[in-house]
Amino acid sequence: MSDLWQDLRLGFRLLVKYPRVSVWAVLSLALGVGANSAIFSLVDGLLLRPLPVAAPGRLVAVYGTDQGSGNLSYYPFSYPNFLDLRDGNSSLSGMFAFRRHRLSFADGQGEPELVTGQIVSTNYFALLGVRPALGQTFTPGPDRAMGGDAVVVLGHGLWQRRFDSDPRIVGRTLTLNGQAFKVLGVAPPGFRGTQLISPAEFWVPMTLFKSLSPRASVMDQREWQMFLAMGRLRPGVSAAQAEANLGALAGRLRETYPKENAGMGVAVLSLTESMIDPNQRQVFTRSATLLMVAVGLVLLIACANVGSLLLARATNRRREIAVRLAVGAGRGRLVRQLLAESAVLAITGTVLGLLLAHWSSGLLWALRPPLLAPDAVDLGLNPRVLVFTLAVALVTTVLCGLAPAREAARADLSGVLKSGTPLAERHRVLSLR
Description:
Layout: H1 2-17, H2 19-48, E1 59-66, E2 74-75, H3 79-88, E3 92-106, E4 113-120, H4 124-128, E5 134-135, E6 151-154, H5 156-163, E7 173-176, E8 179-186, E9 202-205, H6 209-212, E10 228-233, H7 239-256, E11 264-270, H8 271-274, H9 278-316, H10 318-326, H11 331-366, H12 383-409, H13 413-418, H14 423-432
Parallel strand pairs: 4-9, 6-8
Antiparallel strand pairs: 1-2, 1-10, 1-11, 3-4, 3-7, 3-10, 5-8, 6-9, 7-8
């Protein structure tokens, strides 16, 4: 451990001794590490980060498919088809429907605004295992019974933005589409629904759909595909088994209602696969892969440049290395020292790269596609991003230190010493040991 600390101290001394080389090396690594961290935080937020729900691995999304088309596409269900699938399956412990909806929101104080929320089955929060930050959520009940109390659950962000995090919000009356609604509760921070593309700012129960939607008259018509569906797998049931079970039910619906359900099939996807519309997910995945490859190449180029600088510096220090070998230092010890020197550069570049990633995340998000809502993804540094950045720093250390370490291991001791080594340099080398 003492040898490692000594090598790191020498690395810092060399960092100061060769400022021009050090500045270029650190800036190059900061650019490479920062670009990788920024892009990975975006990929993590869009494709990898789990939702704050109970047992997310048991949640699945259920989509309709068209078996007659050549390309696999995913569709929502009509409400009657959803009810038949929900009530007839034996693979899901529960199933809920939801639909994106925009309403005019007014609280009696600020200016009215259009907000995006969801109309959901009353078992929505119970099945997701989401507990409110304030108040309560909907009581699961029969969604067929239209009407009832006009209640709403507010998103945490809307509560903070429009009500200044007022803890007395529960029970307060606000206006949605000109109708009075009582606030039932506030969702927990970080939960904005199960769709990243259009995060929800409020939730109203399905029992109020006909009083809120201009399409209320078509809710009971089987040909109108309006509702997305999700469910929770029963213990011991896999997604493939659930898909087979629901597919058999879809076959019966095709036979019973051939006109409305011609070619209807069912696909069951994991929660992660459904957070982005599966019809668009492949585009996001390919784009993310290309971005990661691009920033990976930037990091490799930075490592190659820094490795060349360190190799040139090691070449200038070949007499020092030869003298250290002559006085008893092992080649492995010299290799460790050179890797420690590259680690100092990598650590400095990584810290600067993290600052660069944090600063550029806002600019990166400003270039997002228009279909992504401004608050769809949190690009803050989280443990996964930090672990990824640490892994990048370790790889950078090895790649940058590989060439000079290899040169040190192959040093020609006798040839360098015969060329002559000044006495002052020998004393300096001995003092470094």
